[in-house]
Amino acid sequence: MLLLGPPVLLVVFRFVPVPVTALMLIRAVEGYPLHHAWVPYRQIAPALPRAVVASEDNLFCSETLGVDTMALLDQVNDALAGRRPRGASTITMQVARNLFLWPAHSMVRKLLELWLTPQIALLWPKRRILEVYLNSVEFGPGIFGVEAASRHWFGRDAAALTPDEAARLAVILPDPLHWSPLPPDPWVAQRATLISGRSGDMGPLLDCVR
What we know:
By secondary structure, the protein is mainly alpha-helical. The protein has helices at 5-13, 22-29, 47-56, 69-80, 91-100, 107-123, 126-136, 146-154, 163-171, 186-199; strands at residues 35-36, 138-140, 143-144. A 3-stranded mixed beta sheet has the order 1-3-2, covered by helices on one side.
């Protein structure tokens, strides 16, 4: 039954907003307040999905099953060689993890991610994957989704984010409990400038986010 639950929810979440995720519940247990507000994709400034894809998953639009196979194989080789694995999570894999799993690294979690990710990739169009991702990803302690993040960090709705603000939000995603878009430390500011430029040069790689 535990294995059947997530696929059923994936069918439901293909059409309705996700009210709460596993990561939100974990953070609540850890003592963080919950700030979250769902907004439709069309009410998110276009600069943000472009910046997120440029920062987190350049090949998002072309990934058939939501997995970057080459990056995943590199991660496996690193683990087998005793090296610390580098990040290989695509946006679709992050959606699977945020919705149903836990943040701590483990082989069990990775296997469950790999079981869930192709289901999401096959059941949801790319725009829906991004919509759920942007509405559920963690942008700071207890801050989930772009609307809550925009209001918290910049005092404005997600629709009004500037390209620079969108880039700053995108670059803190790998470590949102320790990095802040405001005021950005030198690394965040430099990385945001890089992502702003990259998102303007990706061309067809961003076709699915428009």
